[in-house]
Amino acid sequence: MATTAPTGSPPSQPSLTHPPPPRKLTTVKAIARLSSIPSIYTFPKQPYHEPVSDTKEPIPTIDFSLLASSHPDERSETIREFGKACRDWGFFMVTNHGVPERMMKAIIEACREFFELPEEEKRGISIFNESVDEILCWRDYVKIFQHPEFHSPNKPPSFREIALEYSKRVRLVAREIIRGISESLGLEKDYIDETLNLKNGLQLIAANLYPPCLRPELAMGLPPHSDHGILTLLIQNQIGGLQVQHKGKWVNIDPIPNSFLANIGDHIEILSNGKYKSVLHRAVVNNRDVRISIAVPHGPALDAIVSPASKLICDPETTVPTRPKIELLQNPPAYGAMKYKEYLELQQGTMLNGKSCLERIRKGV
Ligand code: OGA
Ligand code: NI
Prior knowledge:
By secondary structure, this protein is of the alpha+beta class. It has a domain at about 50-305: Jelly Rolls (Sandwich). The chain is about 25% helix and about 20% strand. The strands form four sheets. A seven-stranded mixed β-sheet has the order 3-4-11-8-13-6-5. Strands 7-12-9-10 form a four-stranded antiparallel β-sheet, with no helix packed on it. A two-stranded parallel ribbon has the order 1-2. Helix 2 (about 70-90) crosses helix 5 and helix 3 crosses helix 5. The longest helix is centred in the middle third of the chain and has 26 residues, at about 160-185. Mean pLDDT is about 85; it is low at about 1-25 and about 130. Bound molecules: N-oxalylglycine and nickel (II) ion.
């Protein structure tokens, strides 16, 4: 289904605004029943003021099953596709991943049921809008640790079993894609897995519910940001809303049933010394349908220190220069080393704002 950008230009003054509701006391699902939009939900930089690309260039689609192909050519071609997708888009679709469709549907339904629980039952589990947000997003969301420690809400009763099964299967797919990305960078297949200790890596379920919005042009589901970590795998009910920044414009990403939308995170940008970049994306809302998306971010182990891979840099201070001098000058480390846990803490204390967190550890900016 196509994403639902409303037509016509938005009014410059949000005429349907009211004083803000008490913060953190309610969900956007409840606010969506009001006949107007509280002003704290109206974005200063409204999503439809920026042009959306009419590019016909499709987002890359990669057949995951070819990674296991017994034809070495098919595997190496797939690795090349990963490299191209990471360089050109930072986002790609993954098909034939082996996670059963019924499991993908079950986790979406389990999250929908979770969001439908009475508000008292979600409190303490569901994170509403963080206090650092100045403007609130038109979404309810919950983030649940899946690995290295598994957590689950107790309700709905089926949630635990479905989440456990889903997150295990998705983690296998993610680690295999990360092996492919590692090879595509010219590193050992297991370089990222081992260096960032993915055996103990972080995995979350981040479920988002975007209720229909009376004035979708005034609100923002999720403002532009890049994801922390290594690789996020996202599914959604078949309602569009995700937009990805590509060649300076926003591109609507239409869901493909039964596939994952994958994107690389800030820690691939750091590890690859900027060869691959994490990409800004955002979610816009519509006035018709409830949209549910489930993002599963995968990160390093919390105590892993992430820095540019030594093979991808030539640091005059730490490596013996075996390469021509010109290359040495071209590849100094562009990012400082930082523990993943500290990066997350830094991000949590910052407003969700583009790639501001990554900028803070970039050298020379
Ligand atoms: C996220 C995210 C996009 C979406 O949760 O980090 O980018 O479509 N979600 O909900
Ligand atoms: Ni994201």
